[in-house]
Amino acid sequence: MSLQQPKVGFVSLGCPKALVDSERILTQLRVEGYDLVQRYDDADVVVVNTCGFIDSAVAESLDAIGEAMAENGKVIVTGCLGKRSEVIREAYPDVLSISGPQDYASVMDAVHLALPPKHDPFIDLLPDYGLKLTPKHYAYLKISEGCNHRCSFCIIPSMRGDLVSRPVDEVLREAEKLVRGGVKELLVVSQDTSAYGVDLKYATRLWRGNAYQTRMKALCEGLSGLGAWTRLHYVYPYPHVDEIIPLMAEGKLLPYLDIPFQHASPRILKLMKRPGAVDKTLERIQRWRAACPELTIRSTFIVGFPGETDAEFEELLEFLDEAQLDRVGAFAYSPVAGAQANALPDPVDEGVKQERLARFMERQAAISEARLAAKVGSVQQVIVDAIDGDLAIARSMADAPEIDGLVQVQDGREAGLQPGEFAMVRIMGSDEHDLYGEVEYEG
Q1: What is the reported pLDDT for 375?
Q2: Which residues face 256 on adjacent strands?
């Protein structure tokens, strides 16, 4: 490539859905002949893809913009915080451009204005699946944008709009390209995976000569034929989730559900504007596990939501005891600018919130530790992420990258394991987060 090619630096913040946005922008930059560089000093312009969901994310995004301005001076801002352009302009009035999430055209227009492209179609070649920011062996597969829910603590619909599903054949073609390019694990992401296709009235499309509805079950059936692990994230506990459990039991889909339950008190769930039938939720978890004993359930919760009483927090702890979830994350409630929950009465004292969060995590840590200990002695299929000294750092079917635990394979280097490979590992030990094992040899 010519040394005169225009050079773009890129900073990507936020959730996996924002990461996919970054990958699409980066792919278009490379298609148009831009060099992508790692250092501010090497860049002719810097793009910052921001997050703006909670106050800490806003602060992180503003810090990243400030660093790029200080180190480079030519900065294009996009992403969720771009919906609050006045916040950015107040702090950094000299940024070149501000746009919201998924607005790829505005980002490219700003880049063109600041740095006209010099495309050479004979040497600027890309894989047909585009550029990825994840390791070669896994990729996020975004199936929709936006959300139809109006949870009182969330402002994502105001940033990303209502649900807009991608046609099922388009998603399946992208997944097929990724797998052909070496991806071994597909991580399905959206704001609400269970609602996939409702806006398209579940329209039927053709792929590989077969008809598929644009809905979660049909998508999973199509993905199951690609030979890669498929993992579902951000699944609301709607009744039709029951339909995909048999696919998990049959080994066609990873036995893993990421379901953001958020709380267990019906009154608090109503204030959150979330589904509130907790008894039915527990029954369904039991049915899922009866049908698919290997099922892993991860979830997220909010403690200290406005109005949460001591008794309602105890309900949440009781739910943990009954549900026996495998992986759990929790947050102390934090007001988000523009969220309806800010107007709710009886805010919980910050000290009380932190005390409840500590109790919650202590209770869940014991549950997670026990569930992992039950796997000692079993043989688990793992995918290797990295080699670290003598260890292979891997993940089982129960572990999503970056948010769940790991399987540390003690003889990974000796066994010749490489990143992206699958292996069978006998589990020799555990703690509250990770498993430890050795390669299981056949015979």
Answers
A1: 97
A2: 296
